[in-house]
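Support reply, case 0932

Customer input (verbatim):
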Amino acid sequence: MPKLSIIVPTYNERDNVSLQFQHIANAINDFEVIFVDDNSPDGTAQVIKELQSKDVRVRLLQRPGKLGLGTAIMDGLKLARGEFVGMMDADLSHDATALPAMMNAFSTSDIIIGSRYVKGGKIVGWPFSRYIVSRVAILIAKILLNPSVKDTTSGFVLYRRQMLEELQGKLSTRGYKLLLEVLMKSPQTRVKEIPITFVNRLSGKSKLNRGEIIEFIRLCWQLRRNRSGKS
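Our regenerated output:
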C-alpha cells in the first residue's frame, strides 16, 4: 500500500495533469495519485486514462458532473489506500518539491498545510485583485473564527487518513475550501504550516468565482454559529 494518497480534483485540466503527476513522482516515491474528474468536456479523463495505463500509481474516479471540490476530496478519500491523504490542485500552482518536508512534519503533527503566508512562503504571478480576494477571505475567517493558522484557504494540505475518516458525515464539504471546516471541527488536532511557493496557473482557467467566495463566507458564518451552539 502507498504511504501517501494525493487527491487531485480536475475539471478541464488536460494540459496540466501529466505534468502534475510527473512533478509529484520527481518529489516522492511512496505514493498514489487519485484524480477525481467531474466529466471534463476537454478530455481530461482520457489523458488520465493514458497515464493510468503506464503507471499503477495513477487512479481515476469519474463523476457525472461538477459536484464541487469538497465532495471530490471526500469521494477520493473512499478510494485512498495510504496512511496519509493529501489534496493538491491540478493547475501546477502547488509546488510538489515541498512534499518531502510536509511528510516529515507528520512526526509531530496531524495536519500539514502548504502555506503561502508563513515565513518563507510566497506567491508568484497573481494579479493584485486575486491577492486581495485571498487576504480578505483569510481576514473574514480570522474575525469570525480566529483559527490558529495563517493560511486557512490553502488547497495544498496533507492529513492523517484516520483523522479525516473520523470526520466523514460531519463535514458539509461546501465550497472550495475544506481545510477551514476540518480545523474548526478538530480543534485539538496538531497542525503545522510548511512554507511553499504558490505559482499562478500557466494554462487553463481558474475555478475560483463569485459563487465560491460567497459560499466560503457562508461557511464561516455557519461554523461560528455552530461553535456558539446555535442551529
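We compared this against your earlier run and they match. Two observations from our side: The first helix runs from residue 17 to 27. The radius of gyration is 17 Å. Please reopen the case if you see a mismatch on your end.
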